[in-house]
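Hi, here's the filled form for the chain we discussed.

Project: internal
Contact: R.S.
Residues: 166
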Amino acid sequence: MNTARHLLRFTDPAQLTHRWGLARWTPLPLRLITGYGFMEHGYAKIVKNPDVFAGILHTLGVPAPHFMAWATILTELVGGIAVMVGAFVPLVSLPMIAVLMVATLTVHLQYGFSSIKLLAVTSAGAQFGPPGYETDLLYLACLAALVLGGSGPFAVDGWLARRGRK
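And the returned structure, exactly as it came back:
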């Protein structure tokens, strides 16, 4: 009986992360990949010309497409940077969640869950279909985890909290 309990203590990932102090680091990779992902999407919209994105929004029936294009780009860039550095994460997550929900409902939902749809492999390479809402849900889960669990180490939010206690 003691052997089983002893073995369980060393194979339970929650016990290992707690024992080694790793649990506090879990928000860091979430912040980095989520923030970078949003920044990359915002940057891609700028590189491909914001007017092109505004045209897409117009086609989707989004009101004030030019304003919404820039609002989306700024949300992705500024929100992405803020999440990466752990600054004002609960606040910046709200518009980021709104962007994700709009993208899910207007574009990705009709294509189903999977974000990768391999259609064919040709001599030119792999050919993919339109992405589903899987990635949107992953980003939403990361933002929810950061809002509910905190920004973790090396976060501006933590620095501000410590500074406010002085």
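Let me know if anything looks off before we file it.
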